[in-house]
């Protein structure tokens, strides 16, 4: 189930909304794994982060690749998304972020020099009464800063072109087609044409789409893998992810339109079941998701969705059974699904399930430590058990992984006062209290 996620400090600072979903994350990681290996990044701890944004975009910060849900929704094939990920891997492997920082530093120096020269000219003009000299000072100000800006943009365009070529290399190494990359650039070019957009290519940080196509098409078509298509099973998984994103972000009707050419297909039924669930008709949604479960009983995400629907229907014991099945079937051992199982156990209201819920929530969070919402459920479970110190520590962790460090420290201090000195909980609280964000 797509869930809004409190963003870490980086995302908060840029007003980025993240989402968490076990099914989508598993698929995108599978897309990324071969190209990261080909780029020499297989053991670099690269994370894929989903951004709740309808536009077609992806970007890199540090060791994280951020990809918009709109990119997945608009991509007709897995190969198109894989091409996007290969391009972003090219940025990481090429060290482009560090070099961009260096370029920005040089540009800033150039702008400072221009400012100093402009101030000097302005002072000289004022002292001499030479009006023309004062006007030329303004030109030095603006001209120097514009030159610095264009220098950075030119550098960025060069790095984008380099990342495109690297992506072609990675796709070739992994036996995949670059056709998806070309399709992406064609879509971007068409959207600019339909919008009547006229741009100065020298004012862009990326090469214009038609230029990118011209630069890559010959190289892409020369590959023996160019006409290779995605396996049907992978295409279906891709379409199911698109169905889920459409239903959650654009509504029932939009999800139906996405698959109107095949209304009886699995993705269309999936979209309909989710849309029915979101519209509040849990009973009908259970019936629809059960159709999919019967057709594919080993699909963990159908069982997970069934659990979510049953929770909404007020049937937590049955929901717990569905989540438990999803956990058993999930090859990726998602912490999100296990946290859902713990949440369902907690909702049964049975004391014996409550202690088990704590164990499951803790285990799920150990696999997905940054899943901030899970700490809220854990705090509730501890609170129901009467364990106030652990409830406050879980609350502190939830604030911490949401980037809300002030409240994290407050709750950590409260928890620590009630814990034995030197105990694991006391030490974790101390870590939160002592934490200082980078750059502050």
From TrEMBL:
Question: Carries keyword Plastid?
Answer: no
On whether RNA-binding is a keyword of this UniProt record, the answer is no
Q: Which residues form the Peptidase M48 domain?
A: 21-218
Q: What is its EC number?
A: 3.4.24.-
| Ranges of the TPR repeats in the UniProt entry | 300-333
Any binding details for the cofactor? Binds 1 zinc ion per subunit.
Q: Which GO terms describe its molecular function?
A: metallopeptidase activity
Q: Name one Pfam family in it.
A: Peptidase_M48
Write down what this protein is called: M48 family metalloprotease
- Give the cofactors, semicolon-separated: Zn(2+)
| Family listed | Belongs to the peptidase M48 family.
Q: Which UniProt keywords apply?
A: Hydrolase, Metal-binding, Metalloprotease, Protease, TPR repeat, Zinc
Q: Which SUPFAM superfamilies match?
A: TPR-like
- UniProt organism field: Neoaquamicrobium sediminum
């Amino acid at each position: 189930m797509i869930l809004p996620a409190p963003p870490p400090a980086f995302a908060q600072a840029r007003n980025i909304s993240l989402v968490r979903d076990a099914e989508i994350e598993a698929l995108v990681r599978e897309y990324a794994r071969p190209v990261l290996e080909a780029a020499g990044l297989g053991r670099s701890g690269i994370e894929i982060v989903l951004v709740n944004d309808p536009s077609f975009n992806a970007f890199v910060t540090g060791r994280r690749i951020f990809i918009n849900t709109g990119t997945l929704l608009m991509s007709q094939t897995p190969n198109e998304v894989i091409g996007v990920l290969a391009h972003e891997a090219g940025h990481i492997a090429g060290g482009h972020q560090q070099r961009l920082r260096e370029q920005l530093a040089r540009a800033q120096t150039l702008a400072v020099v221009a400012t100093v020269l402009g101030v000097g000219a302005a002072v000289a003009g004022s002292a001499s009464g030479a009006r023309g000299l004062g006007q030329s000072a303004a030109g030095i100000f603006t001209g120097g800063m514009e030159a610095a800006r264009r220098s950075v943009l030119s550098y960025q365009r060069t790095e984008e072109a380099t990342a495109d070529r690297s992506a072609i290399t990675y796709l070739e190494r992994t036996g995949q087609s670059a056709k998806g990359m070309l399709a992406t650039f064609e879509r971007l070019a068409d959207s600019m044409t339909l919008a009547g957009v006229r741009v100065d290519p020298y004012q862009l940080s990326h090469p214009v789409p038609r230029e990118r196509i011209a630069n890559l098409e010959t190289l892409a078509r020369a590959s023996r893998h160019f006409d290779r298509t995605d396996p049907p099973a992978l295409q279906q998984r891709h379409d199911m992810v698109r169905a889920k994103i459409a239903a959650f972000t654009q509504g029932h009707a939009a999800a139906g339109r996405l698959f109107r050419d095949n209304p009886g297909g699995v993705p269309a039924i999936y979209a309909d079941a989710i849309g029915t669930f979101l519209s509040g008709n849990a009973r009908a949604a259970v019936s629809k998701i059960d159709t999919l479960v019967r057709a594919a009983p080993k699909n963990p995400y159908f069982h997970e969705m069934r659990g979510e629907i049953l929770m909404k229907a007020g049937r937590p014991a049955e929901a717990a059974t569905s989540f438990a099945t999803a956990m058993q079937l999930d090859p990726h051992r998602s912490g999100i699904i296990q946290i859902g199982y713990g949440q369902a156990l907690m909702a049964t209201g049975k004391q014996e399930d409550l202690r088990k819920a704590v164990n499951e929530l803790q285990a799920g969070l150990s696999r997905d430590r940054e899943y901030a919402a899970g700490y809220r459920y854990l705090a509730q479970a501890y609170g129901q058990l009467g364990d106030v110190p652990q409830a406050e520590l879980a609350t502190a962790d939830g604030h911490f992984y949401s980037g809300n460090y002030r409240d994290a420290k407050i709750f950590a201090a409260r928890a620590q006062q009630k814990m034995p000195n030197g105990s694991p909980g006391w030490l974790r609280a101390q870590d939160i209290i002592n934490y200082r964000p980078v750059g502050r």
